[in-house]
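Hi Prof. W.,

I finally got the Interferon-induced very large GTPase 1 prediction working! I wasn't sure whether to trim anything, so I left the full sequence exactly as given:
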Amino acid sequence: MGQLFEAISYQEESFQNLIVRLPNVAAELLIEGHPLELMDGDAAHVPLTWVTAVLKQVQEILKNPSIVVLSILGLQSTGKSTLLNTLFGVRFSVSAGRCTRGAFMQLVPLHQTLQQECKCEYFLLVDTEGLRAPELDATKTQNHDNELATFVIGLANLTVINIYGETPGDLDDILQTSVHAFLRMKAVKLRPGCHFVHQNVSAVMADEKGMMGRFNFKTKLDEMTAAAAKEEHLESEYSTFNEVIRFNDEKDVTHFPNLWKGDPPMAPVNFGYSFKAITLKTKLVDFAREMSAGHHIIVLSQFVNMLKQFWKAVLYENFVFSFKNTLESSTYTFLDTQFGKWSWSYQQDMLEREHDLATTMANSSEDPQASTIFEEAKSILFEEADRKYQALKVEMEKFFAERPEREILIKWKSETETQLRHVREQLMRHATTHCEQVWKTYLAKVKMTEIAGNHRIVIVRRVKALVSDLQEKLAHKQLGEKLNGKLTDQELEDKFETQWQEWIKELQKMSVQTQAEEKDIKSDVQSSLRKLFKAEDSMLIKKQDPAQKGMSLEEWGKITPQLSNKHVIVKGRIDWLISKVGFTTWEPLVAEQTKAIFDEVKMYLDTLKNRDFHPSFTNKVIQILMEGIDTFKKNNKGLELTKEYKIEIALILCGYALVRFQIMVTQFREQNDPVKCFEHQKKRKYLQMFKYLYNQTAQELAVARLFCSDIEHQVRKEVFNRLSLKIVSHLRDYREPAYIGEKRVLIQKILQRNGQDLRNHNFDSCSRYIMHPTLSISSWIRKFTEEFCDHGQQSRRISVIANRILEELMKAIRDTAKAVTNTFVVHGDTFQIVVWIGKFTDRLRSELELDRSEMCEQGGVQKLGDIKYFTDELVKGLKIVDNKLQDEFQLLTSADLERCSVTPYAALDDGVNAVSGCRGSCPFCHEPCSRAKDHGGDHLVEGNRHRPQCMGGVKYRGTEEMVLTTCNAEVYDNRSFYKDQTTHILHPYRRASEIYPGWKIEASTPGESLNYWKYVVAQYKQRLMELYNMKGSKIPTDWQKLELSNALADFAA
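And this is what came out:
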């Protein structure tokens, strides 16, 4: 009947009468005492439309009665339906095996006296099918049972949990999963109750075990709740079973003897069972009275609304139901995180190899063996993929063999191996497709160059023909009476534009079509998010669902994160620290870390130039986020960021990155489209040629101007090619005041700049450098480079440097033009312009990238009559070009650095000889490593002068006081450290490299830290305490006496 109702409810109005009658019939049956199916046991689905319609009819008939909802839960064949039938005289079906499927509800009216006492008119009973049914596949029933148990517990005011014997058996795992689900579904705000019934336990046995049994049982429930709360980072809020599901171990446990006294079918009913049933019924009525006293009784309409809300929450929470218990869930989450790292490592290696090969193919135009490059690239890709795949397989085997949870992990080993193979195949498909696209683009460019070369003479002829046609029409007044004399420049451009579009269409037909398929970048970004946040999938969907006040990914990318204490989980003894130090908000800590994450993501996105989209770009953005979250946890012992923070920041970052990716792909395709490139480079030149021919400009003048136009374009391009290198040379030249050619000097300049901020009592830049030295160095290099370019005595340095490059190039051009012209005069050669241009480009090959064949077709002219006229106009034209570019470069700012193929700050920060050097920092004090970028051997701190360890958040366990000694002083004193707050194993500082590979810290006497850091600790002690949640230590007197001038004196030399 329910299926029929839901089917016709979507049909035409002719069924309206039936739509009204069916729920009414079912409502009358329910009131008369017949059960109504609440959950379909085969489909594990609640037909909300049907159930809601029936209950609304009941609500109308019974005038919205007040109810108490009671449910029962237990393993199959433990007598659940029998118990309900005995308690309330109802008629739920009973038999051996799976007699109940899904969940059924039935209304039981209360006696008038009870109605007055309980302020309740009906008990709504919910009977359920037995869990862990042997008829069903164990792998399929796990999800179903966990979902069913959570649903019936959450829906009821009280759930009777029926256990056969003293031990709960598989119910332990089911209850743990239900508790876990309730913790994840915080928005529903439920706190149901439960009552445990142990069947087939005699009163004697129950009394003997009594108190100790109940204590052990409660302890077990509390332990599983604590485990689930820890998995959800809610251990500060929930530690006992009673905090999630109401349970009193003194009152809410009843022991039942066996129903039969002897062996059925001849055995009589055990009267002890009936007595216990009366006892349990009394407890249930007492529970209803307690609810009435606390004003917790609900009416049927409230139950309907709660049913809708809770079922929706259960549907969203599909992750935790798939596991046997919380330990299994947390183990799978750890495996999923580890697989993400393997997958990311694989993607990174393949992406780098793919990019290198693509670059090689794109630049292979001069290679006579270019036709073999693509096959070689594919071969290299397959070899690299196999090598990395085999290495990861070995690592994975080791992981599954050595992890403490290996007995649980083994069930997912085969699945993980399959996933890794799938990742390999997916990466190979993408890499091969990308390389094929690069190769096709390269072939298309070669073909386009060939077509354009062959078509050049045709275009020149058509330009001449167009000019002749216009002049002829003008002579016969066919262009309109409004024309007096020649066409204006604008009219010429309009005529040319019409013809040009026709010529481009012809070229497009002749060219090789290489446009790649349009990628759905948004789907790729969302897919990466779903894969990386598999455990939080329901929250991720909800945040993007407009129906639940969510936003689209693009909208997320436009908002500013709203940070507060709700994004922080306080753990352990930090409550004591709050009372001692007085912290009441963690918002500044979260804001600081969030800014660092956003800055690093923006810097990463800035490096993605002239690239097609790759899914690993999204993974990198999320990896930066996860590393930032780990850094926050490491720097702020006792604090963690919530899952909600992680999801919201990931959505904001990915929404922002999505827009950047779309712009990047659009630019990439425009830059690599052969026809568009040809149109962009040649249209202006042919328009000029058209105007010169139409206006009957002298050949020498026309050729000279066209020649200068080509020179202008190439000179501008070459200036920006050289600009970045020249700026880097200035910054790395030790004779320059702005010298930052060594990391030692670079760090000194950063500390000096931060010192100036400290003079103004601004600690922000210093705190960023303390907590995030690598990111701070990168940001400082960029800012320093931009300031260097934007400042100067009379003109900005970037303008001065650009004009110096321009001066060198223009001098070389003028000298070359003069030398070539003199050669013609001395040897008396016939003045053929193509020969002159050929000699000119040959001599200037090392200075400028000039297309000889293109430049030799200046207006289709082969010979010129007057070499002096040509050279005079050429000199004038070059002077105009020189002045024009000087004026243009005079307006340059640091923003124009983006026009360089490689920006100077990128070269300084991440180039082959990057001045920023190694990105490692000391695990204790965060002092950056002073060595080069890809150094071999151990890390090194300049002069072995580490900071006080409190700069890295190191504090004494127990007192939480900041540690003022340096790491190398600890080595000198042969002291030890704890790896983190939770371990109890001490490790000697002398052997720190065993815990932190590469960090072999040398010994030095105490007090070897820079005065700079002593000053910072003494003057900004409170800020450091806030940064790392530490308690203050007594600052040495000599540190307190230091002034900023003493601190900055460390760098005077």
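Residues 413-475 form the longest helix (63 residues). Does that look reasonable to you?

Thanks,
D.
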